[in-house]
Specification:
Belongs to the AAA ATPase family. Highly divergent. The protein is α/β, with parallel strands linked by helices. It has 22 helices and 15 strands. The protein has four domains: 5-155, Rossmann fold (3-Layer(aba) Sandwich); 163-240, Orthogonal Bundle (Helicase, Ruva Protein, domain 3), CATH 1.10.8; 259-414, P-loop containing nucleotide triphosphate hydrolases (Rossmann fold), CATH 3.40.50.300; 419-493, Helicase, Ruva Protein, domain 3, CATH 1.10.8.60. 50% of the residues lie in helices and 13% in strands. It is elongated. The two termini are 55 Å apart.
Length: 513
Amino acid sequence: MSRSVSIASNLQDLQTLILSFHPVIAIETVEEERVQDLLRTATQEMGLSLFEWSMTQGLVRVSQSDRWTNEYAPPGQTTSGYENSGDPLKLLETIQSLNIRGVFLLKDFASHLEDAKTARQFRELVQLFGQTRSVIVLVGAEIALPVELAHDACFYDLKLPGRDELLQAVQDIVRSLRVKNRVQVEVQDQDLHLLVKSLTGMTLKQARQVVAYAALEDGKLTAQDVQRILQRKAQIIQEGGVLEYFPMDDTPLDLGGFTGLKQWLAYAKVGFSPQAQAVNLKPPKGILIVGIQGCGKSLAAKAIARAWKMPLLKLDAGRLYDKYVGESEKNFRHAIALAESMAPAVLWIDEIEKSLGNNGGDADGGLSRRMFGSFLTWMQEKTGEVFVIATANDLSQVPPELLRKGRFDEIFFVDLPDDRERLTILQIHLTRRRQNPEMLDLSALIAATDGFSGAEIEQAVITALYKALYLNKPLETALLLEVIKSTVPLSITRREDVQRLRAIAQERFVSVR
């Protein structure tokens, strides 16, 4: 059976590491079974022996003749185990006594290295393997190695499965369901690709479980199950990471004004086309939208994803930072890897000054600076079709390096809406709430909302409607004007900040108009 490009790439990487005198390879992942399968294929092609260890089953030599022999065997039930090898220290002694060049997959072993004697024995084994060219592969969800061992280890980043691996997994499930006649499979080849596209960003196990559940729930597997899979996918991403997932949505999103931004985006979208690739044009990297709070920056991110028919991933700054050392960086790397695995996609970083800004200083041990540096490096080097939309309210907290030309494709400024834009915003929010704008004095409302942001106009409409319902009468211009006049907009309460932002934007940024 021919292997996909993604699987072949992982195999080549692992085989190269094994051949290049790396005595310890550490793989931080929850996809233990995927690592097992990769190592079994890699060692079989290289003619090396493969051993697997866990505390429950001890050390086992893996038979290459039939990789599925013990698939359903209870844990620990094996005919090729080594006596007393379940104990970590005994395991290392057993491995050292073997006169075999091989690969030893140790599951959840890193935590045992906190014991000084086990760490010492492990270090001696690593020194021996540096000469014999045997390899220890550590696998676990989290791998923290003592300082004296860390320099001998090579951490391998096993990325989430690509569409080729997912396609192979779906094909296996479909084949199994057809053989067992448990469900009615109504999936054509073109439907398979839709299913696979909906599964990107999941582990192989999650993908198998979601597809199987969708099929068994109603006894059928059809193209209509894509929506069910997307709903489950949104739950998985939000439960297990720092990203919020918004599936692709064909429903248009009203965005008042922003004519200049819309025109720029129409040009930029061409960068994702095959024609652009044919002339060696790279896809656009992203944009930074700065402006006054409540003027539609967040709405713009959602509108862009819908217009481009791409999934939207929102980076949650509150979940990004963790109290434990190293966890925040790991969260960030996981978020970026997830975004890349779902490409083409839109990554939305709301209020970037709060997650990657200057507000941390030295108080957080330099964490903010490290995270910011990682983000800049990724933006500079990324090759995946991930379009970044970053928004910012407070420029004083945005690192100046982020505003330098070339970091983003363009930096846009969102000002308070003008008369024409306020008219559009009023019409949008009145119509959305089943009110007829023509029954109101729009000229008076436009004049009264001078200096209001889009969010403030929306809130005025909502508050006036509440009052109208309470008074049991239709919404009238007088009632809306009463609410508007009682509202003090940000343009007044933070006049100096608004003026300063406008002055900077006039010199350095492009207007969304």
